[in-house]
Specification:
This protein is of the alpha/beta class. The protein has a single domain, classed as Alpha/Beta hydrolase fold, catalytic domain (Rossmann fold, 3-Layer(aba) Sandwich), CATH 3.40.50. It is built from 10 helices and 9 strands. α2 crosses α3. One of its GO terms (molecular function) is methyl jasmonate esterase activity.
Length: 237
């Protein structure tokens, strides 16, 4: 059995894994999650939040585990696990990009997204945060979630996202980041990171395996059982 560390994306928190974590644990895996600084229930002021701070928190969680981990990053979490792999590559068995950003050296989320379709964000200059336009949240992030109560609850739990992690480039090397096995789980119904963009990223930075789900940008809500099955299979490969 494996140890999973699950990293959420922008505007969300560890709550996104509530349907996935217990099912993986029921299969015998160990699962660790966290709220990134300034996300979920973490009250770090957004002005203090950086990609480096994200990486520090995730690295600390990984170091607490007794074995190498399978590090999963959703959406913006792809940048976090990429930079984390550069820092603690010897503690990571596999990287799993779940409809996530997969940057090359020197790229930030904003530079990687240039010219691509994606969420419409509004900037709050006073606290240096970005938030998706409320009228677009459902169709952008949760368009295939059939449970209306779950969808509404999830929309209400989203928070504005600190801006700095969007602008900071990753600095990675083939010797460290490049030494870790990479798997990409792509989602064909995704309106936040369209499938064409996902496929461009996992082609530019090749992965040992690409798994395709007919899901939206929230497969942990719309297709949790299928996602758990894929992660379980990843642990056996």
């Amino acid at each position: 059995m494996s140890t999973f560390v699950l990293v959420h994306g922008a505007c969300q928190g560890e709550w996104v894994w509530e349907k996935v974590k217990p099912e993986l644990e029921a299969l015998g895996h160990k699962v660790a999650t966290l709220d990134l600084p300034g996300s979920g229930q973490d009250m770090t002021p957004p002005q203090q939040v950086t990609l480096d701070l994200y990486v520090e928190k995730v690295s600390d969680l990984i170091k607490q585990q007794n074995e190498k981990v399978i590090l999963v990053g959703h959406s913006m979490g792809g940048l976090v696990i990429t930079q984390t792999a550069e820092k603690v590559h010897d503690k990571i068995d596999k990287l799993v990009y779940l409809c996530a950003f997969l940057p090359k050296n020197g790229e930030s989320l904003i530079s990687k997204s240039e010219g691509e379709k994606g969420p419409e964000f509004e900037l709050n200059e006073a606290d240096m945060t970005l938030g998706p336009k409320l009228e677009t949240v459902e169709e952008t992030f949760f368009n295939a979630v059939e449970d209306e109560a779950l969808k509404l609850a999830s929309m209400k739990r989203c928070r504005p996202q600190a801006l700095a992690p969007f602008t900071q480039p990753v600095i990675i090397t083939e010797e460290k980041f490049g030494s870790v096995d990479r798997i990409y789980i792509e989602t064909t119904l995704d309106n936040a990171i369209p499938i064409s963009f996902q496929r461009r990223m996992n082609t530019e930075t090749p992965c040992s395996k690409v798994i395709t789900m007919e899901a939206d940008h929230a497969p942990f809500l719309s297709k949790p059982e299928e996602l758990v099955n894929h992660l379980n299979q990843v642990s056996k490969s």
